[in-house]
Amino acid sequence: MRITSCKFVKSVANGAEIINDGKPIIAFVGRSNVGKSSLLNFLVNNKSMARTSSTPGRTRLINYFQINDNMYFVDLPGYGFAKLNRSESAKWDTILGDFLTKSEDLKLVCILVDSRLEASELDKSMMNYLEYFRIPYILIATKCDKMSKAQQNNAKLKLANSLAMGVDNILMSSAKNKSGKEEILIKFEQFINEE
Questions:
Q1: What is the side-by-side order of every strand in the sheet holding 71-75?
Q2: Whether the Cβ atoms of residue 141 and residue 171 lie closer than 8 Å to each other
Q3: CA 173 to mean position of chain CA atoms
Q4: Per-residue model confidence as pLDDT tens digits over 52-84
Q5: Cα separation, 30 vs 132, whole angstroms
Q6: Which residues are paired to 147 by β-bridges?
Q7: Which has the closest alpha carbon to 29: 101, 108, 98?
Q8: Cα 40 from Cα 142, distance rounded (Å)
Q9: Beta-carbon neighbour count of residue 92 at 10 Å?
Q10: N or C: less crowded end of the chain, CB within 10 Å?
Q11: What three-state secondary structure class fits 92?
């Protein structure tokens, strides 16, 4: 897959606004400080497409970005660090659930985890949710720029063992040192082309 264009389409605040127009969707989800916006900007080679923030939990809406005029990347609200009251948290759960279960063109969900840390209980809950609804997913381990290749392989193996999943479903990436992009885009293409 080669990305030649990207543009912000809209932010969605409720299930009624979810886009179902026949174009494939790849969604990104993870803890609030995992580097989701940085990864999105790195993949599309545009530093300002998705807004990054030093304050965790800034993404509170579902944000659609059109890629190559024929598909979407969707930035989902981060979980784990956002300071929310109970009603806000319930609203987030509802819109996230609506997106995941009502997006007819959803091809893949990328769960982002910090390569230097163990997967959290929230990451595991997201995996269980996706498995329950039979939604394909992969793990992208971010922030691996300070790791040697051997350390990256060890981190990947550790993640795979702790989550009982194959190492081929975990991709290593760093927006900082521009690594992992090709492998990620190849994986995306495989899921988009699957019937």
A1: 6-12, 62-67, 71-75, 25-30, 106-114, 137-142, 170-172
A2: yes
A3: 12
A4: 544 444 456 899 999 999 999 999 988 764 455
A5: 18
A6: none
A7: 108
A8: 11
A9: 20
A10: C
A11: helix
pLDDT the model gives residue 97: 87
- Give the distance from CA 69 to its chain's centroid: 20
Which one-letter DSSP state was computed for residue 106? E
Task: Provide the strand spans (E) within the chain.
Answer: 6-12, 25-30, 62-67, 71-75, 106-114, 137-142, 170-172
Mean pLDDT of the chain: 86
pLDDT tens for residues 107-132?
A: 999 999 999 888 888 899 999 999 99
What type of residue sits at position 187? K
Q: Which residues contact 139 (CB under 8 A, 6 or more apart)?
A: 110, 111, 112, 113, 119, 159, 163, 165, 169, 170, 171
Paired residues of 26 in beta bridges: 73, 108
Amino acid at 20: N
CA-to-CA separations, 180 to 9, 97, 176, in angstroms, rounded: 26, 29, 11
Sign of CA dihedral 120, 13, 130, 50: negative
